[in-house]
Amino acid sequence: MADLFDRLDGATVFTKIDLKTGYSQVRIAEGDEDKTTCPQICTLMNQVFSEYIDEFVVVYLNDIMIYSKILEEYLEHLRKVLAQLREHNLYVKLSKCAFAQKKIDSLVHVIEEGRIKMDQHKIQTVTNWPPPKDIHALRAFLGLCNFYRRFVKNYSLIALPLTEHLKKVAPWDWGPKRAEAFNALKASMSSSPVLALPDLPSHSKYRRIPLTMLWAESCYKRGI
Hints:
This protein is α+β, with helices and mostly antiparallel strands.
């Protein structure tokens, strides 16, 4: 998902299109129904929009997002996407679509020009999450948090007492250290952090901003 959003630099007009019961639109040979899995819809979407992905389309499962710099460009992008949907007999659910928006809720994020935010419903879910009582509950909590980890500075370090416990075969042990990490992670996730998209050199019409890259390394992690 992180790579998907790196393509949005310079976009100001957004559209989201949701397939109507998308998983049911995958054509399956009779007798092969039990062999079908979730990746089937991913493969289909990538094949249908392969020409436009990385150019002005992002697909995630059965969701499609179109991103454009100006309205005139957007109209051409939309025409091409709708043509592909028609050619492949794919149907959309109009009530879940939004066209030519400056700000849009799509791909479980809130997206606007130059900025990406976490979905407020997901933030509320994290905020209301009770202390886990077993490994399964802890894994579910971390699964949700990990989806938004790029929004939280030092995420790996904050979550370390929790992720370490997932690796152990030892009995469940929810002590003060893990309770503190749990609350700290919830606080970081609920602070409504915002990511700014970089002004990449490929878009010459936009003002250049020097990018500073910080390299961090410790016993637990390494990254930029």
